[in-house]
């Protein structure tokens, strides 16, 4: 177990190094095998820790409990989808001359590094290390966002790096203050588990500031309004697989960080302190996403704003904090991660085919590009929370928990926001998907299998989870109990 | 495993298999497989419903593993059974009809695969026995129907518009229901219907009433109740006709189901104003619907609006029942709700029939516009006969099934309370007036639909070229037509078992509302009796007598065909016929202030003299007031709000960092 | 060296870093601003060292050296390089003019002191008395980020933010666990390099590093 | 149902069938006399019918089977109503199977069938007639049903026999305001449904004014005979109904011969009196413009509505 836990972050790292080497073919496919192995390892760990066990190596440098295992699974699945799809995508990018072999190599390497950083972030017990890893994701993705050296992509990456780094720096201050508090509490430590056990002795005054700053910092990374500003630009400019990873897991990793902080904060300051903060941010995110979706013209930004909406939901779930809410939140992470990955990958294919990200230029997709168009449509339906996709179950659970916790007003407000989002996404979705092409010019043959299969797989998986979770059920329960004991 | 459960699960299984078959098989087989298997599902579904209504046993299923974080719980009780019954019955006809109807363009994988899923959802919703289960089934129904509504998006641009309206309104309905039921569940401390029932009377009135109003909004939107009906006249016409039959015949009714279930079963009824609200909304819907149906010239749009009308009538019954029950007169309440449920069943049958008929016309003539139809009676005899039966039934004419329920409804409104409360004394007479006027207008509407659509001369070459439809489609229509006649002759077939469902509504009734006396049915308390069967027999005898007299008086039997009196012109052309527009004109004028039609008349004169006309063009457009005055401005306002909101995201990194600075400062100051 | 003297040095270094913050906010010349940054970095390093000595951490002294190298030498060099490459030497017209910026700076400093009070309260050692100054430096960096238009200035702002946090870190905890320290420094370095590359790309794409041009991505 | 009852029921049906054309005749004669003409004998309608039945059956081209079946159904539905309504005696063939509401819908059935047949001819007149006919029928419906509401409230039942017996039980009730209001309503409805002045003029064939005549314009020979017969049957039916509901005196409640005799006489008197009265009134009336008719029917609706309200609050 320890070996697996330790090796998991290294798999992508190694793959990344290989990717830098000259032989591209191998590089691309090792990039696929690494996430697959991560997935397997995550599954093994999951089965182990679901029983409440904890795997710990190097006094907490690596510590995998149920929550970490859940996140590892999430990262593994999404990374698998993104990388598998990515092979075909990069080939097409090179073919279309948006980049060259060198660019492709760097791309593969950075993607792996990005995944590795995220894995570190979720499988360490040390808040400091977690912080370092989160900052590392920013650096890894900086060049991925700017992968096409266009004006827009450069602009996006500049904004992304500056805003995200500033945010994470704020989080660093928070971490420092936590350490400060622990120093004057039970003894200096940055280990989450120790902080939790010693939460009683931490000085509330310092912790209040610390927690606030941590939430602001990681909230920036998660894209909570009003700190979301970089997200639409970065997610819409990055290459599809990277957008998939950023939207699908990176935001969830940030939320994960907030959840870890929340545990300590709840023990030291009581649940209400963070609840107010998260509730405001969450509801604000949902409403803002709705407002900005109303007049949207770019389908990748559309997906990005939908991410903001879903992060808002997660924040609300965290704010409610009951067992049901947290379980719903975790399930929502998983469902949203996969669905959003599929959505972005499909959108990438549409971009390759049409050469434009404007909704107006991409119509009648179901007729022109049945496979990816269909996948895009289904992903939208999933993101809008239609059964059998699991997002319906999780949203329902979060709202249920909200009413049960006497936060009916917030839940109702959220429901209203979701209604607006729904209307907006539906109007643009139908504009893109339905109808018959005005010009009979077909967009060449439908995309190749390696780009379609992962999308189909992802959709089937989300639908399946929405009906029956099977072995994931106990893991989710265990993970939920880590946060809301 | 009881018969109920076995057949119900069997039905679901059949649908599932149908979906798989649709995905697996190739075209010609696909359509057949889906049609047949869905039909089987329909039959099994009705069997389960019948066994419940016959009092065999309620079917209960608990699947804690399924449906993450909630667990699925189903129970098929007499109230739900009514709706499973109509779902099954209409499904049988619709899916067999679909075999022939899908031959042309609708045989794609997606549509064929989703249709059985839609049927499945229709069987699931009435059996759901917990909040989450209900909501999931409800959304499953929403998404499948949405896909089916959009099925023909390649053919007509309106389809996409329709799909959007439908999607938004159906999600509005979900949001309202969700808030209502989750609130309820939170107060009850559990989400199974049993717990909800138990907790209902422990809740403060404010909560009860708000839960009720939210439920009314949500389910009303699905039922097509004014002012939440706007999606209905868009979606139903654009959907493939056999789907429209299910939408209008069954899905819309599930709104009624939800209202009854939440309002008078789970909440156990409430103050009089609940009933009054429902009744008034119902009355408005009925009048609004029928008036728009009257002036519609698109056959399927006409049918859709008439659905709003019928839902209105059903709601009038429900509301009346609520009022009576709150006044303590549970006997009359039982009568009223029996009337509503009976009308639910009847409307499912004849509206399904009418939509199938309209589908046949559309398929063969390629148009839905009444002003371009006509002369089908000779070209499509079976379709014409079936549509005729449907029209007479929906016009509530004896001896067809519409009459029975309309009669019961009126009986329940023409009450004999000793000294009624003011509400009853003032509302009921008006309700009678509305129901009567609606009935009259419905008759006019369907004389127009059937007369101008099927009789006399064809008004266009398409109609001229129409031919009778294929066997499978004929089967679908004939089956429903026979059901209409059958229930018309012997309504007791349904009325008697319905009494079980009435009992289930603990908030309304504690005894049967309608007693069965031989062929006749008698409203509780012998207030009046009706035996439609006898009427039919009497009619038959009368006809026989007249013909016999004819023979006796040696009237010539042979008929000679001669030209009609065409005002002196030798030939009579279709252009001389009254069009549907002109048929409706007098009534449209009577209700001008209400319908506010936009007329435009342009007359072009010949160049020689302004006393000679070149051409006269007359156009009349009637828009849905709620759509043009309520929804469109709302949507527009939202869109503008979206435009304003974009300022927040104006691209300046300095602004973005400014947000962060402010947030950080606030956090620092607040956590001081 | 006695604690008293040590604390006098400490206060001086802390104060100096704050002054540097104001200087950066006050000057228009980019080179001058970068110089201010370098000095600030050095003073942070000094603080780190003094704290290390005070607490007797060897590790903190090492960290101090690290800081000195990264913050006072490498990074300023990089930035000056960028300036020379882009041939932009002045913050010609800042979004917010100098006096207002300085006023805002004063305001944020006040807020910093208010917010820092209870941090000091936890242990009132002469070291922690500097914590509010750290916060103030951080907020000054923030102001640079919001008020200035050139890419370089923004980077400087970000680094001052960083310095402020570092100050707080050293003053409160005399250095974090080494791995975090190293990771942090590495990240910081990488971030700056990334930004430098991006700045070059901006120049290539937009002709200048005026960030007001970066408004193509919007809703 | 005893043999006697059946006999009585049949008797009433036959009586009504026999008298119906005569009633029309009487009205025409009265009208003629009041206009200073001599006019035909009251039996003329019967003669017309006999003549029509002998004629050849002409039927318009391009009509469907509906056109042919319509007259039969029209007569049949009317006959069923005849078999429901107590005229001579309170017991009729169908009084236990159909109540007043049923009666209204049966009559509507006739109207609808005729309207369809009229459209089926495909001529302008047919369409016009059926459009107008349905308009009036639709608008008359609320008034009619509310009037029934009012009447049935008194007896607490919508079954005709109960109502009549109730009325006989306390004749005082007949003088009550609600009954008078209801009577007004029913009167107007009768004029509308039976197509009399001022709603429709049975004796005109002026294109723009006719309603019923426009519908039946294409009928000839035996079919026309049926239609004509049906319309006079309807008229008589309404007179009988008014008589039974508002002047129930003399109607036989037992099945002994004497009572029957009284019943027959009383009924004849009522019907003929009403016929003469209506005819007399019609002389002084002009036909309303089509778009004034709704106002008249609205008035009727108000009357019956008031009747109901009053009967609630004067209880």
What's this entry about, in short?
The complex is a heterotetramer of chains A (485), B (672), C (219) and D (315). Chain A is mainly alpha-helical.
What does this structure look like?
The complex is a heterotetramer of chains A (485), B (672), C (219) and D (315). With 485 residues, chain A is mainly α. Chain A has helices at residues 2-20, 24-49, 66-96, 101-122, 127-145, 151-184, 192-197, 204-222, 230-237, 240-269, 271-294, 299-320, 323-354, 365-368, 370-383, 390-404, 408-433, 449-467, 472-483; strands at residues 55-57, 62-64. Chain A is built from 19 helices and 2 strands. Chain A has a two-stranded antiparallel ribbon with strand order 1-2. Chain B has helices at 3-24, 27-53, 78-101, 109-124, 131-149, 158-188, 193-200, 205-223, 232-238, 241-266, 272-295, 299-326, 330-365, 376-379, 381-394, 401-413, 422-454, 461-465, 471-489, 492-504, 532-552, 580-590, 592-595, 625-645, 653-670, and strands spanning 59-63, 72-76, 514-517, 520-523, 529-530, 559-562, 598-605, 613-621. Chain B is mainly α. In chain B, 62% of the residues are buried. Chain B is built from 25 helices and 8 strands. Chain C has one domain (3-213). Chain C is built from 7 helices and no strands. In chain C, helix 2 (30-55) packs antiparallel against helix 3 (58-86) and helix 3 packs parallel to helix 7 (178-206). The longest helix of chain C is centred in the first third of the chain and has 29 residues, at 58-86. Chains in contact: A-B, A-C, B-C, B-D. At the B-D interface, helix 15, helix 16, helix 17, strand 5 and helix 21 of B face strand 1, helix 3, helix 4, helix 5 and helix 9 of D. Strand 6 of chain B pairs parallel with strand 1 of chain D.
The count of strands of chain C amounts to: 0
Number of separate helices of chain C:
7
Percentage of residues assigned to helices of chain B: 55-70%
Low-confidence stretches of chain C: none
| Rg of chain B computed from alpha carbons, rounded to a whole number of angstroms | 27 Å
How are the SSEs ordered, and which strands pair?
The complex is a heterotetramer of chains A (485), B (672), C (219) and D (315).
Chain A: H1 2-20, H2 24-49, E1 55-57, E2 62-64, H3 66-96, H4 101-122, H5 127-145, H6 151-184, H7 192-197, H8 204-222, H9 230-237, H10 240-269, H11 271-294, H12 299-320, H13 323-354, H14 365-368, H15 370-383, H16 390-404, H17 408-433, H18 449-467, H19 472-483
Chain B: H1 3-24, H2 27-53, E1 59-63, E2 72-76, H3 78-101, H4 109-124, H5 131-149, H6 158-188, H7 193-200, H8 205-223, H9 232-238, H10 241-266, H11 272-295, H12 299-326, H13 330-365, H14 376-379, H15 381-394, H16 401-413, H17 422-454, H18 461-465, H19 471-489, H20 492-504, E3 514-517, E4 520-523, E5 529-530, H21 532-552, E6 559-562, H22 580-590, H23 592-595, E7 598-605, E8 613-621, H24 625-645, H25 653-670
Antiparallel strand pairs in B: 1-2, 3-4, 4-5, 7-8
Helix pairs in contact in B: 1-2, 1-4, 2-3, 2-4, 3-4, 3-10, 3-13, 3-19, 3-20, 4-5, 5-6, 5-10, 6-7, 6-8, 6-9, 8-10, 9-10, 9-12, 10-12, 10-13, 11-12, 11-17, 12-13, 12-17, 13-15, 13-16, 13-19, 13-20, 15-17, 15-19, 16-19
Chain D: H1 3-34, H2 44-54, E1 57-60, H3 65-84, H4 100-120, H5 124-155, H6 160-169, H7 177-193, H8 212-215, H9 221-246, H10 257-283, H11 293-313
Helix pairs in contact in D: 1-9, 1-10, 2-9, 3-4, 3-9, 4-5, 5-6, 5-7, 5-11, 7-9, 7-11, 9-10
